[in-house]
């Protein structure tokens, strides 16, 4: 690969103007005088930063959601039905939030509005799917009483839906990586429920893929992964350095919007505390098996009781790994996140999205919900993700929410949990800070220095260029 010189680049937040030589996929030199290079690009004072990682995505679902009916604006079940009616044929909508709806979704509403049509609506958190009677029949669940499927029933039914042709779906996914690169993204951790190592190996062999991918392993494929000799962090052979083996994903509980997050206190007006997906003993056994074979666990835990169960398991097993979401945490558990090798994978865009639902269902406890400042103060390591399609695959959106604790005209929600830009940026870059010789040339160039912007401006920041191992994956106006 020819060497590349980036001239007149601002080096990091509030940094000086320097010239950066890139060769062999790495930063070769940062200098005050421009050295010779095969190619030279004047970035005219643009700010050079480490490229962004989205540490939690569901890539196939994100690629499909970009083409589905948008239900995010529905304020009731009736409004959601009205949004899908203008479409014809088999219709899939995405993005509804029923936690605050005044009415209840039911298959009869869809049948009355569109008799015989196959309609599926997926909730914003991916934990609920609402099927019409015809759609239920298509997946062999015609006798389901309500058509509202939650947790495992939801996942099973969604997996049974007819999928686009593999080549077309792979193209959609590849296009989504290019769109992500345009926002400065150089890598992602994919938690799709699939053989991600095989699927991404096929994609990088047949498509242009513009990000690196850490390929997670679903829990039900753990023994297969062990038999294939997969180990977390290992490069995937034949991927040209784009792919690595990720962690194994397992669930302790469900989600807040579905009221299945597993909590110490019951949800208002009920005796239900949520759903325990995996018992403590089963979690321990699965984590132990994975750890013995070099596969790190990534444990989904949203409620405070679920997070405590996950922390107990990490302490019993003694392995490194991740706790995904960590949305509600017991006061005594913050310090436990500081254990060596443990990463808290958090999604700051969820806080403004879910604040009203949290105020209703976690009343009196929201001071310890989405509590990023308290996690950092306790010594936790944070990595930021979007959980796309739950939120857009755009780390700037999450970073702005982490700083501002709001995403619109509403006042900041628990502003004491805001974290500063420098920390947010590092947490969105897999811990990278600054531009140093020897580092991988996975970089982005922004038109303005993010340090001079307010959070609302960060959401729309212009990314002039993105480099992956010194290769342009996005270039605009430079």
Q: Gap between N and C termini, in Å?
A: 20 Å
Total number of helices: 15
Helix content: 25-40%
Instruction: Find the count of extended strands (DSSP E, 2+ residues).
Output: 21
Biggest sheet character: 8 strands, mixed
Radius of gyration over C-alpha positions, nearest whole angstrom: 23 Å
Low-confidence region ranges: none
Shape summary: globular
Question: Which structural category do the helix and sheet elements fall into?
Answer: alpha/beta
The overall pLDDT average reads 97
Strand content: 15-25%
Keywords:
29% helix, 8-stranded mixed sheet, single chain, 8-stranded parallel sheet, alpha/beta, 478 residues, 15 helices
If you had to describe this structure to a student in words, what would you say it looks like?
By secondary structure, the chain is of the alpha/beta class. It is built from 15 helices and 21 strands. Strands 1, 2, 3, 4, 5, 19, 20 and 21 form an 8-stranded mixed beta sheet that branches. The chain has an 8-stranded parallel beta sheet with strand order 6-12-13-14-15-16-17-18. Strands 7-8-9-10-11 form a 5-stranded mixed beta sheet. The mean pLDDT is 97.
């Amino acid at each position: 690969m020819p060497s590349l010189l980036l001239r007149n680049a601002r080096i990091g937040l509030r940094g000086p103007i320097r010239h950066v030589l890139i060769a062999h996929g790495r930063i070769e030199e940062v200098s005050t005088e421009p050295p010779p290079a095969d190619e030279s690009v004047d970035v005219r004072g643009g700010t050079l930063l480490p490229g962004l990682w989205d540490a939690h995505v569901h890539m196939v679902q994100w690629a499909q959601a970009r083409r589905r009916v948008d239900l995010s604006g529905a304020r009731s079940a009736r409004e959601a039905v009205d949004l899908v009616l203008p479409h014809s044929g088999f219709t899939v909508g995405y993005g509804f939030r029923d936690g605050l709806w005044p009415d209840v979704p039911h298959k009869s509403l869809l049948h009355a509005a569109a008799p015989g049509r196959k309609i599926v609506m997926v909730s914003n958190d991916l934990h609920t799917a609402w099927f019409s009677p015809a759609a239920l029949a298509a997946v062999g669940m015609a006798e389901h009483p309500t058509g509202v499927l939650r947790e495992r029933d939801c996942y099973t039914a969604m997996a049974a839906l007819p999928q686009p042709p593999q080549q077309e779906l792979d193209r959609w996914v590849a296009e989504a990586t290019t769109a992500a690169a345009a926002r400065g993204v150089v890598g992602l951790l994919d938690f799709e429920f699939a053989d991600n190592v095989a699927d991404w190996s096929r994609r990088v062999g047949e498509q242009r893929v513009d990000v690196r991918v850490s390929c997670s392993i679903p829990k039900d494929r753990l023994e297969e992964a062990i038999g294939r000799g997969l180990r977390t962090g290992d490069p995937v052979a034949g991927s040209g350095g784009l792919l690595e083996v990720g962690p194994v994903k397992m669930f302790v509980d469900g989600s807040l919007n579905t009221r299945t997050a597993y909590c110490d206190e019951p949800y208002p007006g009920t005796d239900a505390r949520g759903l325990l997906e995996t018992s403590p003993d089963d979690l321990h056994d699965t984590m132990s098996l994975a750890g013995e074979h070099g596969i790190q666990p990534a444990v989904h835990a949203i409620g405070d009781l679920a997070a405590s169960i996950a922390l107990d398991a990490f302490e019993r097993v003694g392995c490194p790994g991740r706790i995904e979401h960590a949305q509600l945490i017991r006061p005594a558990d913050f310090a436990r996140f500081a254990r060596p090798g443990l990463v808290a994978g958090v999604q700051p865009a969820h806080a403004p999205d879910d604040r009203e639902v949290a105020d209703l269902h976690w009343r009196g406890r929201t001071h310890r919900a989405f509590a990023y400042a308290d996690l950092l103060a306790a010594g936790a390591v944070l990595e930021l993700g979007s959980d796309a399609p739950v939120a857009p695959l755009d780390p700037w959106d999450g970073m702005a929410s982490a700083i501002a604790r709001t995403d619109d005209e509403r006042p900041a929600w628990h502003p004491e949990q805001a974290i500063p830009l420098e920390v947010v940026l590092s947490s969105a870059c897999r811990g990278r800070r600054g531009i140093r010789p020897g580092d991988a040339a996975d970089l982005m160039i922004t038109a303005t220095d993010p340090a001079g912007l307010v959070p609302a401006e960060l959401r729309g920041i212009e990314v002039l260029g993105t480099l992956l191992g010194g290769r342009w994956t996005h270039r605009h106006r430079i």
